[in-house]
Amino acid sequence: MPLALMGDRTFVALWMTGAIVNVIRWLEVLAIGVFAFDLTGSPLVVSFLLLVRTVPMSVVGFWVALLADKVGSRLLLLVMLATMIPVSLVLAWLVYVGEIEIWHLTIGVIFSGCLQAADMPVRRIMLGEVAGVERVGAAMSLDSSTNHITRLLGPIMGGVVLVTMGLDGAFVLSAALYVLAIGLLLTVPAGESSPPSAGTSIIRNLIEGVRLARESRMLVGVLWVTVIHNICGFPFLSMVPVIGKDVLALGPVEVGLLTGAEGAGAFVGAMFAAVFARPQWFLRIYLYGSVLAMTMILLFGLSGTVLLSSIAMPIAGLGAAGFGSMQSAIVFAFAPPHLRGRLMGVLVFCIGVGPLGYLQLGLLADWWNASAAVTIVAIEGMIALAIVMVRYPEIRRALAPGEQS
User: Fold this and answer.
1) Residue 7, exposed/middle/buried by CB under 10 A (0-12, 13-18, 19+)?
2) Among the residues of 233-305, which ranges form H helices?
3) Domains (range + CATH), the chain
């Protein structure tokens, strides 16, 4: 199935557009994180910058999915990408003249977060529609694989660019990559916009999406797992630059390699899912992947050595791949075609709680240290996952052999 999808020029253009956006995202996460920590010496500031990047997921993510129905998905993404070019160039100029401040970076990462909030629901719905329900698992896994491989390439590029060209060079490179993404997206057919029913407000569409989700207790449990992983799982990456520099005594390039190891493991996991995952396995891959990732995050927080950290990071990525690949596939396969945007919007809203995790992690790191913060949050996540499994027996039944179809 992945090979068949790779023969579709529209799918490839959408896929590669996402890859470029994710390269920029992870390049800037590493470069801005290291720069901000060197500038302020505060892990809370590093975590805060990642927090504000994720805020738009909850604030505008659902609204963007509905707006795409009105104006057209491709046009919306083109506007968002074009907006990021002057934003990146202005930030590059501020760094170059030595006038950059944390509030400038904050505004920049908010814009980046808005692009991410649009890219996740809008482009993934486009990918699913190109692939069809039968191939949606492979499509989402392939797209997830680009997110994960860019967690390898982006931080490495960020570390190298930060050392050789500075933060201004990182922003100039981002602007050039946005131009490339626009060129790819222009090759995608515009398609037709499909506006929601006349007179239906954004809030009423959100309520309808929540109502549809609540009709299935299993789906409610799945969405709770998304909330848990985005609060207790993914935010640990914000502490990798801090732990890498303070605990493991690594330089920017080595920190990039350590962060990239998580992306490498996730890429392998996502490609495995793209080739072998079948619909009846989606839920198992999703849940077990989250548990595996949380276990390895705990090991990373406790390790204190380069060797154990280097082992934990790629395995954590392997688990994150199972979680990340399947969450969109489960929602896309569950929803009726005319309601996919609404349910995907609910999923994006659940992903958007991530800022709570970054805030919690940053505060804990400021009170104690980064390693202790990662350890505490990982334990919280494992306890919360266990509670969901007890609270929603429908998930346990769906995991039983022969129950999924």
Assistant:
1) exposed
2) 240-246, 252-276, 282-303
3) 2-187+200-399 (1.20.1250.20)
* 287 in Cβ contact with 399 (< 8 Å): yes
- In this structure, are residues 84 and 202 in contact, taking their beta carbons and an 8 Å threshold? no
Within 119-135, where are the H helices?
A: 124-131
Closest by CA position to 233, among listed 320, 360, 321: 320
Q: Say whether 250 sits in a helix, a strand or coil.
A: coil
Q: Which two tokens stand for residue 206?
A: 């959100």
CA 381/CA 384 separation, integer angstroms: 5
Query: 3-class DSSP state for residue 190?
Result: coil
Model confidence pLDDT, tens digit, residues 112-159: 888 877 787 788 778 877 877 667 777 777 787 777 677 667 667 777
Determine the Cα–Cα distance for residues 236 and 378; give it in Å rounded to an integer.
Answer: 9
Whole-angstrom CA distances from 277 to 138, 213, 234, 270, 294 are 7, 24, 23, 10, 21
pLDDT tens profile 191-217: 544 444 444 455 565 566 566 666 667
Q: Which of 348, 122, 381, 36 is nearest to 235 (CA)?
A: 381
Distance of CA 293 to the CA centre of its chain: 14
Nearest partner of 144 among 124, 118, 174, 117, judged by Cα: 124
The 10s digit of each residue's pLDDT in 269-304 is 877 777 776 777 778 888 888 999 999 999 998 887
Q: Residues 26, 320: contact at Cβ < 8 Å?
A: no
Residues 6+ apart with CB under 8 A from 197: none
CA of 231: how far to CAs of 226, 227, 356, 377, 379, in Å?
A: 9, 6, 6, 8, 12
For residue 215, give every residue at least 6 positions away whose Cβ sits within 8 Å of its Cβ, in sequence order, or none.
Answer: none
- Tell me, letter by letter, the H, E, C secondary structure of 34-94: HHHHHHHCCHHHHHHHHHHHHHHHHHCHHHHHHHHHHHCHHHHHHHHHHHHHHHHHHHHHH
Cα Rg of the chain (Å, integer): 20
- In whole angstroms, give the CA distance from residue 30 to residue 332: 32
